[in-house]
Amino acid sequence: MSDPEPSLSDASLKRQRQAIAWGSGLFLGIGIGGAIGFSLDDYPLGFAVGIAIVL
Length: 55
What we know:
Elements: H1 10-40, H2 43-54
């Protein structure tokens, strides 16, 4: 019987956590920035808010 899932190294776990963090930040930035830009009809402001959330 083989291992169902190989163990990950510390570097792999760190990279995986960083990818999840960037992905969720990008998702929130696009969602909130897009909503602000659409609702206020001010897309540069929405873009700036989205970038600020991601970073």
